[in-house]
Amino acid sequence: MADKNTNNGTMAVVLEYTKVILGALILAATVRSLWFEPFKIPSTSMVPTLLVGDYLFVDKNNYGWRNPCTGERYGNGHDIQKGDVVVFSKKKGYLCGLTLGFGSLNFIKRVVAVPGDKVAYNNKTLYVNGEAVHMNFEDVHTYEDAGGQSHSVKKYNVTFNGVTHQVLLNAEQRGFDLAEQVVPEGKYVVMGDNRDNSLDSRFWNYPDWGFVNKEDVVGQAKRIFWSWDNSLKPRFERIGQSLVAQTAKVEGQ
Predict the structure, then answer these.
(1) Exactly one of 33, 60, 82, 109 is catalytic; which is it?
(2) Do the beta carbons of residue 105 and residue 240 sit within 8 Å?
(3) Is 45 annotated as catalytic?
(4) CATH number of the domain at 36-247, out of 2.60.120.10, 2.10.109.10, 3.40.640.10, 2.60.40.10?
(5) E-assigned strands of 29-105?
(6) Label partner for 90 (CA 20 to 30 A): which of 60, 68, 76, 191?
(7) Does residue 109 have an active-site annotation?
(8) HSE on the CB side for 146, CA within 13 Å?
(9) d(CA 173, CA 235)
(10) Radius of gyration over alpha carbons of the chain, in Å?
């Protein structure tokens, strides 16, 4: 009788722990699907803004509540703006916002043109609505790729649409020109900050521009919550850094 009571007690404990674990998993999956999702940076396409080994949170509702199954958005969210760093997917390997792990394609890039804009790219210069996006040379920037190899390229400060960020250009690598094109409704043009090491809107549909559909935008990258280098050494100075575009300072204000 004692053994039977002991077994019943053990089963009750196991069942209770199982309920707690399943509940936690369901809650985590719900939060990840509907509100915030962590992403790891695997490539150098967004250097110097994002480094290989950065981990960041993506706000899925900043642009309105997103139906994870259809991509449609509802509510009074913010419009997607030039300068925003966004994560978007091609929906392959996705089930209602959850990555299934077979061929899922996630990208993170910066929005450089929105619906109605006229966009062109010539001699490594971005033109939006007929005006060149001005770049000010800062210095030579050295970074490591995922394999630990070092690269030294020129770093520029870029300000457009009232926000400022930095981009990299490799003087030894030739650019690809694209003729002016109007961004259709519900579409966006995105580019990596590491301009000569990024597969983005310039290449997906070359010689025409390749656009990102609004419903494919998962959310806005907001903040780095962890980072380490290729040797797994923590980069504490990067933890907590905001990825929300900062308004450029204007002299006299």
Answers:
(1) 109
(2) no
(3) yes
(4) 2.10.109.10
(5) 36-40, 54-59, 65-66, 73-74, 85-89, 94-95, 98-99
(6) 76
(7) yes
(8) 11
(9) 30
(10) 22
Q: In what order do the strands lie in the sheet with 125-128?
A: 131-132, 125-128, 118-122, 178-182
Please report which confidence band the pLDDT of residue 28 belongs to, taking 50, 70 and 90 as the band edges: very low
What is the average per-residue pLDDT within 217-238? 93
Tokens 């806005």 label which residue? 220
The C-alpha atoms of residue 172 and residue 196 are separated, in whole angstroms, by 10
pLDDT, tens digit, for every residue of 79-110? Answer: 999 999 999 986 544 455 454 444 457 899 99
75 dihedral zone (left: phi>0; alpha: psi -120 to 50; beta): left
pLDDT in tens, 134-168: 999 999 999 988 888 899 999 999 987 777 899 99
Query: Do residues 135 and 143 make contact, with C-beta atoms less than 8 angstroms apart?
Result: no
